[in-house]
Each structure stands twice: as C-alpha cells, then as structure tokens.
Amino acid sequence: MSTTKKAYIAGGCFWGMEDLFRTRPGVIDTEVGYQGGQNDNPTYKYHPGHAEGIEIIYDTDKTSFREILDFFFRMHNPTTVDQQGNDMGSSYRSAIFYQNDEEKAIAEEMIRIVNASGKWEGDVVTTLEPFVPFWQAEPEHQDYLVKNPNGYTCHFLRFEESFLKEKA
C-alpha cells in the first residue's frame, strides 16, 4: 500500500521547476504557488516576500524526500541569493519549506552533501523555512510550460549524476 506525501520547495520561477518535477519517478502531481510571504491570498502581481514555489505530491514507495531534494539541488543553482538566471528578488530565492523535524534534518544533510561535493562553485544558500501556508497560483500559471511549450524557463538539469552515493 503506497503512501503519498507533499514536499514544498522554491528555486526560482515556478514554471520551470514544475515542468522538470512533473515527470520525475514517483511524482504524482505538482502545483505552483506562493509561500513564505507577508500576505494571505497572494497573486502573481502582488506576493510580497513570497517565494514562487511548488507543491509536489509524491508516492513514498517510488521516491523519497531525500531524492526530491537531490534533484532540486541539481536542477537550479542553490548558490545564488534571491536569483535564478535573469530572475532577481526574494520571489526567486532557493528555499525548502520543511513540515517536520525529519524533513529539516534531511534538508540539512542534503545541504552538507551538496556543499561537500564541490560541484557548485559556491556554498548552498538555500533557506530552510518552517512550513507556512502554500497559496496556489492562478490557473494560467499551472502547467504553464505544457500550455506554452516555448515559454520562459531558466531551469535545466545541471548535473546528471546524483549527489547521493546510493538511493536512500
């Protein structure tokens, strides 16, 4: 009997992140939205302090939180403060919104592993933020790159090889 869980991460424009995560083994669904900001019911035009993030619903029999973070650290640059590609500002920060102590510990471990790998030129600046409400983005932003295949993205797989020595 499989179990589903949700993970909440941010790493730049949510369109590109969602597009890459949607096809990962074990990922059941993704939603883009806003998290970690100053207002309720944020919108694309007004989301002060919120990161553009994604909610990932995954099957724990097919993938783990650790594996999701491994991919996360390979598909965006976690060493730039409030920036991914040409996108700048706190909306584009790299963040993990942990839901419990176990997720926080896994995130801390993954940051240590990524830093120790030496693959990135700088240290990881991804923030670890306690879970706060995830506000779903407007319908036109959901599955944006499926609807607009030539749309903008700054996300791509930077490293094929996993940061993990063996699957957890």
From TrEMBL:
It catalyses: [thioredoxin]-disulfide + L-methionine + H2O = L-methionine (S)-S-oxide + [thioredoxin]-dithiol; L-methionyl-[protein] + [thioredoxin]-disulfide + H2O = L-methionyl-(S)-S-oxide-[protein] + [thioredoxin]-dithiol. The active site is at C13. Pfam families: PMSR (PF01625). Keywords: Oxidoreductase. Belongs to the MsrA Met sulfoxide reductase family. It comes from the Bacteria. One of its GO terms (molecular function) is L-methionine:thioredoxin-disulfide S-oxidoreductase activity. Has an important function as a repair enzyme for proteins that have been inactivated by oxidation. Catalyzes the reversible oxidation-reduction of methionine sulfoxide in proteins to methionine. Its EC number is 1.8.4.11. InterPro entries: Met_Sox_Rdtase_MsrA_dom, Met_Sox_Rdtase_MsrA_sf. The gene is msrA. This is Peptide methionine sulfoxide reductase MsrA. It is an enzyme of class 1 (oxidoreductase). Coiled coil: none annotated. It comes from Aureibaculum algae. Residues 6-154 form the Peptide methionine sulphoxide reductase MsrA domain.
